[in-house]
Amino acid sequence: MRKHLWATLLVGAASAVSVGLSATPVAAAGHTWTVTPGGNFVTSVPGAASFLTDGSTLARFTCDGLTAQGVLATGSGLINPVGKITAVKSAVSGTAQVNCSGHGLSFGITFTHLPLDIAAIRYDATAGKVIGEIRGIAASISALSGAPACAATVDGTAAGAKDGSARFEYLNSSGLLGTFNGVTSSPLHAYNVSGCNARIRSGDVLTYKASFTMVSSPGSTVNTITSP
After folding, report:
1. For 119, phi and psi rounded to 5 degrees?
2. Contact residues for 24 (Cβ-Cβ < 8 A; gap 6+)
3. Is 116 within 8 Å of 154 (Cβ atoms)?
4. Which of 20, 43, 49, 157 is the most buried (most CB within 10 A)?
5. How many Å apart are CA 93 and CA 43, to the nearest integer?
6. pTM of the model
7. Pairing between β-strand 205-209 and β-strand 164-171 as defined by DSSP bridges
8. Domain map (residue ranges) of the chain
9. Contact at 8 Å (CB) between 133 and 183?
10. What is d(CA 96, CA 44) in angstroms, rounded to the nearest whole number?
11. Among the listed residues 30, 89, 39, 44, the one whose alpha carbon sits nearest the alpha carbon of residue 224
């Protein structure tokens, strides 16, 4: 039944896609999950901005806020992934290119691999939040017109692997998902860097901080993710 329901949700999904834990009680990665109401989700409140940082040069770039669309599983006894992000767009332009600037550079980031998996890892019932990972991240960086040259591939273990990940915190009270600089299964790296004023360099670890809400569509109901 669970497999059938999950498959049905995926067919109906839209085609468009920063931290500690309390001591008790906390559910770990091997536990099952409950998502309510689940189904298709959209962003009702995007973050005002997102931020890309090179972990070696410490160059930090301010980028557009994001909106996301996707689908969450629904019901109880669920296993990962508990959801999929099917589209990520700039909250400024409404396009797939998320523009960034800083350190004399201006460039766009485009997420090149979708859907992305939403994997729940730990649940803090006292705080009403879930810690998890967004998995399957891959992106390209390209300079904006008239800006200094800057091009790169963003991925996890290798360029083209499509396995980058970012740690997130999800708040059941507001439906806000925010990525943060935490240990992940496959940290983001820069590959094939050209230009970028040596502010982004090949092999450097990157972090990307962004936030957006996930509410049901239609209905705009805040989704809750708990365990069990």
Report:
1. -110, 120
2. 126
3. no
4. 43
5. 15
6. 0.86
7. unpaired
8. 2-226
9. no
10. 17
11. 39
Please say whether the beta carbons of 138 and 111 come within 8 A. yes
C-alpha 136/C-alpha 108 separation (Å) is: 19
User: Residue 18 corresponds to which tokens in the numbers above?
Assistant: 């920063």
User: What is the residue whose two structure tokens read 């979708």?
Assistant: 114
For the segment 111-170, what is each residue's pLDDT rounded down to a tens digit? 999 999 999 999 999 999 999 999 999 999 999 999 999 999 999 999 999 999 999 999
